[in-house]
Specification:
Helices cover 49% and strands 22% of the residues. By secondary structure, the chain is of the alpha+beta class. The chain is elongated and about 50 Å long. The N terminus is likely disordered.
């Protein structure tokens, strides 16, 4: 069973500042943008730690540990992820303000930001 598919790549690293600036342009002043996606430290140590935690959680659900181990390597190679600090910086660079973390569920973070 494959746990990762490219189409599930996170919004912020995938679309970058250009698309976020377009979203910003289309929102009315005072409008809010909500994003939820993978967000964890993306240096080698951080990726290893968070993806191993994910593997442990998935293994509890009954997925074969061999499949899980193989998927860690696939995710390390293909998953485009920003650290929480980078998430905030990309949103601010696109013109959003008042960027706040509104939910955190394991390796997923949810951000809400206002169109200034």
């Amino acid at each position: 069973m494959k746990l990762f598919e490219d189409r599930l790549a996170p919004l912020l690293p995938m679309c970058g500042s250009c698309r976020l600036k377009e979203i910003h342009r289309r929102l009315k002043p005072g409008g809010w943008l909500v994003t939820v996606h993978h967000s964890f430290p993306n240096d080698d140590l951080g990726k290893d730690k968070w993806l191993c935690r994910n593997a442990a959680l998935v293994s509890i659900g009954g997925i074969d540990p061999i499949d899980v181990a193989g998927n860690i390597e696939i995710m390390k190679e293909k998953l485009r992820v920003l650290s929480p600090g980078q998430d905030v910086a990309v949103l601010e660079e696109a013109g959003f303000g008042d960027v706040e973390l509104f939910c955190a569920a394991f390796r997923f973070k949810g951000w809400v930001s206002e169109r200034c």
